[in-house]
Amino acid sequence: MKLNNLGKSEIATILGLNALAVKETDKELFDMMAYTSKSLEKDEKAVTKKDLLDLLKDVQKALGDKFVSEPQKEVVETSVKKPVKKSKKAEPVKEEEQEDDGLFPKEMTWGKEKYKQLPLKSMEELYQALSEDKEVFIAFHWTKNQLKRTPYFDGMLGQPKEFEMNLDLSTIIYISEEKKVAYALSLTTEAAYNLLPMDFTVENEGDYKEAGGFEFEFYTKK
Length: 222
Description:
- By secondary structure, the chain is α+β, with helices and mostly antiparallel strands.
- The protein is 28% helix and 19% strand.
- Strands 1, 2, 3, 4, 5, 6, 7 and 8 form an eight-stranded antiparallel beta sheet that branches.
């Protein structure tokens, strides 16, 4: 792949695909990636294609053989591929094992791991939980019908047919010190979700938190 032929959006996508690997390899470089991503969100013109290319080359150099240049081609079936964390391969869970608590069970078994809801009401509370080394996950609700109607991340990561329990469980990989943005990586597809302070706002009691048009809830392992 000739990096110079890539557009800004393509470079940003590849950076996102390598974010977790960089976080585990080079924290300083990961912080630079997070800063660049935040700058792009605020003003796309503030970051040039050259800036992104230089950053991508640094990532490629840092990761070596672990560098990912293209989105995963696999399509998700009823079970999911091995998560990015040290978790065993997820398997379908019988419906009767879960309590009926609406879109998001208070407790659940997803894959072979057990999770419980984590009541976080603001970006500050999320930041505090992560500061205490709590492992935080976000479950984004995706139904089969939504996946049929809506391209998953513009089709760049393949189109899943369904998610276990209709939940795209993701792990938090970054939160800014200013508490203005957080990023979560899907354990199934490695897609990167953005979370903003406004996404915690719920207008009516009983409503769900929503980010990018999709309901979500926080979880931690039991």
